[in-house]
Every structure is written in C-alpha cells, then in structure tokens.
C-alpha cells in the first residue's frame, strides 16, 4: 500500500534521475503539489545495468511499479565468485530463492534507462508536472528564511525543494557549502554485450564476481533482450579526470589498461562502446537538510559502488523523506530534520561498508588473497546464511 494524502505542500524536485522521480511520485501520493525540473531536454539513455535489492524493491512496490521492474529485469540464480587469476571458481551461492525467502523479495538486475522509463511513465500517469530543459539553480536572498529556485530567468518559490541533482550536485556546494568531493581513486569501464560468442561462464543466469589485484570485475545479465552487463573497476592513479558518464574509450585503451588474460580478451572482440567512468565519491554532509532544502540520492551521498546501492539508496531516501512528511504534516521543519537525522546515520554506515568492500575486493598480497578465498570457500560450503546475515541491516529495510 502507498501513502495516504496528508499534505498539500508545494514541492519542487530538482533532477529527474531515479531519486527525483521516486520522490516526486511519493510526495504526490501524500497530496503534495509537485513540479520536477530536469536540466536535460530528454532523459538520457546512458548507463548500463542497475541492481535492485530488496530495500529498493520495497520502495518500488510502494510506487506500484515493483511488478513492472521485476518483470522487465532479470532475476539471477546464483552469485558466483572467482579468483581472476586463471578465472578459478571460489564458490557459488544460490541467491534467487534464498533472497526471496530471507527478505521476501527477489534480487533484480535491469538497465538503468529501463527503470527510468518505468518511473517516468508513472510520473506522467500521475499527471506530475515535469519541465525538461529546465536547469534549476538555488536563489538565496539574505532577507528570506527559505531558498528559492532560479530557472529559465524566473524566481520560483516553493515550500520544499528536494534536490536530486546527482553526485556532482551544485546545490550541495552552494546551499550546503559542503563540497567534500573525495579524490577520484577508482574508475570503472562499463559496457553491455550481446550473448553471442561469449563463453558459457557469462551466459548463465548468474552474477559473477571476479577478484583481481587492485581491481575486480562483475558480470550479470540485464534485460530480457539477452545482454550481459560488464563492469571492470580498478584503483586509479591520482589525477585521473574523465567526463562523468560520457567518456567513451576505445577497446584498445580498455584492454591496454586492464591487461586481461588472453582468453578473456578474445571475448570482447564484439564490444562497440566502452564507457570509462570515474567513480566520484562525495563526502557525507553533516546534515542533508538546510532551511527548506533537502538532498536525496547521489546528491546526498555519492559512494563507492561496491555495495551496488546507488539506486537502492536513492529509493530509500525518497521513502524516508515522504514518511517523515506524512508523520509531521503540519511541522515541515521537524519532518525535514527527522529525515536528515535518519538518513545521515544510515549513509555513514553504507559508506563505511562500501569502503571496506573496496579493500577486500582489491586485495593485492598473495597471502591475504589466499586467506580471503579460503574464508569464502568455508562460508559458502558450511554457513552460507552467514554471507547474507551481515547484510540484513541493509536489505531488511522497512523505512
Ligand atoms: C547518465 C547516468 C548513467 C548512470 N548509469 C548507471 C549505471 O549504469 N549503473 C549504476 O549502478 N548507476 C548508474 N548511474 C548512477 C545511478 O543512476 C545513481 O547512483 C542512482 O540512481 C541515484 O541517482 P540520482 O537520481 O540521485 O542521480 P542521477 O541519476 O545522477 O540524476 C540526476 C539528474 O539531475 C539532473 N540535474 C542535475 N543538475 C540539475 C539542475 N541544476 N537542474 C535540473 N536538473 C539537474 C541530471 O540531468 C540528472 O538527470 C548513472 C547515472 C547517470 C546520470
């Protein structure tokens, strides 16, 4: 069940990514008068696979799109772990039934643009105003208690501004004066590839995680059209700069940088477009609320993707915000403060675990790798539920 109508706030949402669209929809459910501002003329098709875990699906169900997402994505059977050296198998964990049993929802993978399309259709069906080609910037007048929007040469005043402008958030810099972008220490090469001519290890309906030295890569099926998503992540030399989400590299650049094993290299002869994305991390602000402005999604925290939580965390933000407003419909300040308190705590934990995963996934020393793989083999063979127990705090999200 979604939310009951309890609020008639006038709300602006800045950004029509997953965070912005989901928040717009939930606040509309509450009865708010929502307008979404998106700087691009159209929603971009850029991106690749997105993993939706039970916490994200919980929110998508509240938006009445859970079924469409599960139908439009794939539900991998197993999580398979490999040592990148020689592509040796470490073990296999059944996830389809296990996750459904443990969290009541399946794990789903789909293309980012597919999820955006589903959310956008819902936004249109709910008749939420969405202005494309409208860059919304903050307008802070000394004598005013609240922040306004400057868009298309006009000042727009709203009771609440939900900022969902992504990891390089200008609003976070200007309004929150918090611009703790951490240096780019990681980058990711991403592409999707049709199943044709790929070795069987990639074709099965599994998520494959390959641990290398100072790097790792993940493969998983995305949409029903049979494409496989490849993500290669590595530590980056300091000073690397790339155009976020848009930098395309040649196959040669990718292969030279990754120096893959010959057999693996041969698999990628059909790759056409490879994106190289710097993994931008933003610091966690001490508060995600200031005056009548709140941050959601990557604007609140851009973190290392080693928990695959970017979209899920954005969906969580939208649900918690809507719930806080539902709880205090007549005291918006209290609602926003509660939202900030709840989220900052959880974001800190997510950030910490993602950073720890980065260290573990990228172990370099032979002995540490050997111990880690032995530990994984033991857990998979004798205590598989322990593998997920440590994630219960995340996947069991109920708001
Ligand atoms: C092009 C792109 C591709 C991505 N691909 C993947 C992927 O394949 N896999 C994955 O796991 N994650 C991907 N991500 C990240 C993932 O979408 C996010 O981690 C997560 O969904 C949270 O997104 P968000 O809505 O907070 O921010 P974003 O998805 O970054 O959306 C922010 C939106 O705000 C708009 N915007 C920015 N500034 C303004 C402004 N001043 N006024 C109005 N609008 C503004 C942007 O145009 C954008 O549409 C991608 C992000 C982008 C932008």
Task: Describe the protein in words.
By secondary structure, the protein is of the alpha+beta class. It has a domain at 10-75 and 111-181 and 282-360: FAD/NAD(P)-binding domain (3-Layer(bba) Sandwich), CATH 3.50.50. Helices cover 37% and strands 24% of the residues. The protein has helices at residues 18-29, 54-62, 66-72, 96-103, 112-125, 170-174, 200-203, 251-258, 262-267, 310-327, 332-361, 366-382, 384-389, 392-395; strands spanning 10-14, 33-37, 49-52, 78-83, 88-94, 108-111, 129-131, 136-139, 148-151, 154-156, 160-163, 181-182, 186-194, 206-211, 215-221, 227-235, 248-249, 274-278, 281-282, 289-290, 293-295. β20 (289-290) and β21 form a beta hairpin. The longest helix is centred in the last third of the chain and has 30 residues, at 332-361. The protein is globular and about 65 Å long. The mean pLDDT is 89.
């Amino acid at each position: 069940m979604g939310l009951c109508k309890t609020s008639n706030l006038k709300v602006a949402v800045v950004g029509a990514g997953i965070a912005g669209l989901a928040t717009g929809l939930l606040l509309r459910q509450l009865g708010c008068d929502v307008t979404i501002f998106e700087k691009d003329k159209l929603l971009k098709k850029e991106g690749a696979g997105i993993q939706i875990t039970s916490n994200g699906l919980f929110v998508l169900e509240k938006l009445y799109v859970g079924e469409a997402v599960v139908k439009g994505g794939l539900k991998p059977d197993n999580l398979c772990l490999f040592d990148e050296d020689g592509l040796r198998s470490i073990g296999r964990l059944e996830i389809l039934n296990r996750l459904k049993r443990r969290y009541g929802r399946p794990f789903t993978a789909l293309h980012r643009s597919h999820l955006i399309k589903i959310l956008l259709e819902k936004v249109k069906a709910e008749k939420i105003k969405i202005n494309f080609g409208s860059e919304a910037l903050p307008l802070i007048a000394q004598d005013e208690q609240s922040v306004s929007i400057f868009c298309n040469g006009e000042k727009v005043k709203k009771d609440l501004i939900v900022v969902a402008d992504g990891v390089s958030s200008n609003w976070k810099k200007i309004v929150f004066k918090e611009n703790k972008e951490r240096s780019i220490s990681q980058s990711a090469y991403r592409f999707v590839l049709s199943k044709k001519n790929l070795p069987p290890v990639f074709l099965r309906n599994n998520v494959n995680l390959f641990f290398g030295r100072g790097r790792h890569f993940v493969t998983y099926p995305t949409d029903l059209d049979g494409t496989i998503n490849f993500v290669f992540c590595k530590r980056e030399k300091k000073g690397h700069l790339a155009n976020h989400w848009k930098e395309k590299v040649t196959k040669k650049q990718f292969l030279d940088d990754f120096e893959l094993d010959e057999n693996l290299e041969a698999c990628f002869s059909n790759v056409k477009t490879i994106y190289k994305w710097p993994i931008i991390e933003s610091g966690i602000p001490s508060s995600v609320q200031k005056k009548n402005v709140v941050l959601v999604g990557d604007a609140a925290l851009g973190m290392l993707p080693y928990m695959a939580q970017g979209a899920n965390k954005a969906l969580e933000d939208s649900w918690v915000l809507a719930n806080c407003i539902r709880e205090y419909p007549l005291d918006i300040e209290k609602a926003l403060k509660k939202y900030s308190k709840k989220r900052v705590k959880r974001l800190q934990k997510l950030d910490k675990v993602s950073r720890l995963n980065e260290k573990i996934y990228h172990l370099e020393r032979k002995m540490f790798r050997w111990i880690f793989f032995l530990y994984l083999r033991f857990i998979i063979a004798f205590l598989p539920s322990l593998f997920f127990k440590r994630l219960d705090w995340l996947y069991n999200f109920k708001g």
